[in-house]
Every structure is written in structure tokens, then in C-alpha cells.
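C-alpha cells for chain A. Residues wanted.
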């Protein structure tokens, strides 16, 4: 069974302990060894429209980043996951104007999810940048 399958099963069975263990392990591996581990799971979940799962995963990724006020919407916009951006805006009512600051570089303050969609954030995983920007405007 793949890491994605383990995480998804724990998430849907509402097994918080197992989900936390699996997710923390994945995030630690992706930080120390291979970031593609996490991005592969993000892509798999996105292709299956697992938006609640993705929101949880991205919120945890945001915590690991250590960037003050960074949100799951910033991450989703940065990855150009347009349908997830739409879900976070419409269903979860996340503020598209929430700003974050990169602590190591005070010149990068006031960064919104739109900035992430336009290239400040992580590398785009999909070619949905125009759709993502459209939802954020």
C-alpha cells in the first residue's frame, strides 16, 4: 500500500493518531530527503478531488514551513491547484487577502495567495495558473 493510500485511509477512517503519525513521517521525509514525496501525494489527492484531505495536508505543510501567517490557500495557489483554490475560497471561506512574511527577507512582506500563484511560492505542480489567478481576483 502506498503512502498516499495509508494517509487517505487514516484520514477517512478519522484515525487522527495514525493520520498524524503518517503525515508527520511524510513531511519529515520530504523535508530531509525528497520533496517529491509530498508533491506526489498532493497531486494524487488533487486528481481524486480529495479537497478536505488536501486542505489538512497543506495546513500541516504550512506549519512545517515556519512562515508566519502562511495559509493552505497560499500553498494551493503556489502549486496552481485551481479547483482547490476555488474550494478554499467558496466552501471554506478563506480570506484571499491574508498576507504572510518571509522572516529571512523583510522585503518579502504582505505576500498574498495571488503573489504565490504568480510565482513567489512553490513550483507549480500543474498548468492551471490562469485559472488559479482568475479565482483569486
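Reply:
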Amino acid at each position: 500500500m502506498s503512502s498516499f493510500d495509508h494517509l487517505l485511509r487514516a484520514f477517512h477512517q478519522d484515525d487522527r493518531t495514525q493520520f498524524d503519525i503518517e503525515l508527520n513521517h511524510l513531511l519529515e521525509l520530504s523535508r530531509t530527503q525528497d520533496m517529491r514525496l509530498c508533491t506526489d501525494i498532493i497531486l494524487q489527492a488533487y486528481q481524486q478531488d480529495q479537497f478536505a484531505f488536501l486542505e489538512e495536508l497543506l495546513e500541516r505543510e504550512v506549519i512545517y514551513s515556519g512562515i508566519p501567517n502562511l495559509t493552505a490557500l497560499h500553498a494551493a495557489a503556489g502549486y496552481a491547484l485551481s479547483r482547490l483554490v476555488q474550494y478554499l475560497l467558496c466552501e471554506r471561506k478563506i480570506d484571499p487577502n491574508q498576507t504572510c512574511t518571509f522572516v529571512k527577507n523583510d522585503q518579502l512582506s504582505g505576500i498574498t495567495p495571488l503573489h504565490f500563484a504568480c510565482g513567489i511560492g512553490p513550483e507549480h505542480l500543474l498548468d492551471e495558473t490562469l485559472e488559479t489567478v482568475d479565482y483569486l481576483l
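Residues 87 and 136 are 12 Å apart (CA to CA). The two ends are 40 Å apart (CA to CA).
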